[in-house]
Amino acid sequence: MTLSRSRLGTAGPEVSALGLGAMGMSGVYGPSDREESLATLHAALDAGMTLIDTGDFYGMGHNEMLIGEALRGVPREAYQLSVKFGALRDPAGGWSGYDLRPASIRNMLAQSLQKLRVDVIDIYRPSRLPPGTDVEEVIGTLADMVKAGYIRHIGLSEVGVDTIRRAVAVHPVSDLQIEYSLISRGVEDEILPALRELGIGVTAYGVLSRGLISGHWSGTRGQGDFRSLGPRFQDGNVDANLALVEALRQVAAGRGITVAQAAIAWVAAQGADIVPLVGARRRDRLAEALGAAQVRLAHDDLAAIEAAVPKGAAAGERYPSFAMHDLDSERTSA
């Protein structure tokens, strides 16, 4: 299989039409298998998946070191690394806010370069820009790192229109990373039109809503699985959301594809400027996701999928209330 390529906005790199989100390989969804994670990373590269997304706080550095090991010996031009930074962790694995001071950004970047075993990061982005953040200072610091040759492109994550406009006034932005799926469509109202106006691409995470709309959700959450805090997975919400999945399953079966493939292909069909990130941490799930790249949804297919999972039908917010507070993307523009 050869994946097609997409360019991330007018200022960004050319990447594979599907990217690999590596977060789940570092304990966020409970224990993961190290050897299977490495094998999955290699299988993604072999399939032509060039974009690998991580965060320096995934597993407190574990994810970057795992990726660095997997990429040893792989030609640098064969992949692009997208790295989020800024979130703080504690020794118990808890969350401690954000640090976006210029000296901290340079320190985090230096550590990511070492852990990933590279000289330059393709896309570097703050994971969140909480209320009160000096956006111009953050982007200005990143612009200095671009000039110094440590970053190729600046990205954003989970920010709204006003913040996007402030950022691009300082330096070009390649893409916005934001949750986008059949049950998380808020980006369509204001953010996506603004991105297209400004020539900024989208890397869409959560396309399977953390497994909820994958067609494989078993209802079990192991120790350390942060989905136990997710409102959409709570009693009273999860059954309603799984009913949407069953409706989607009927549509997908009629077209000879899986639920996950229908959900991923739907996101990809929303525009050539959108690159879905699939969070596979096993080779079988990766193979299923890659199959979505071969799916071409006609107008009738899209209509049937959206009838099965209507916009706004999901029960529960996409994050717990304390995390929603930090989502600049959830604030409407002035």
From TrEMBL:
SUPFAM superfamilies: NAD(P)-linked oxidoreductase
Protein name according to UniProt: Aldo/keto reductase
Alphabetical UniProt keywords: Oxidoreductase
Domain NADP-dependent oxidoreductase: 18-308
The keyword tRNA processing belongs to this UniProt entry's keyword annotation: no
Signal sequence coordinates: none
Gene3D superfamilies reported for this sequence: NADP-dependent oxidoreductase domain
Matching InterPro entries: Aldo-Keto_reductase, NAD(P)_OxRdtase_dom_sf, NADP_OxRdtase_dom
Pfam families: Aldo_ket_red
GO MF: oxidoreductase activity
A GO cellular-component term linked to this record: cytoplasm
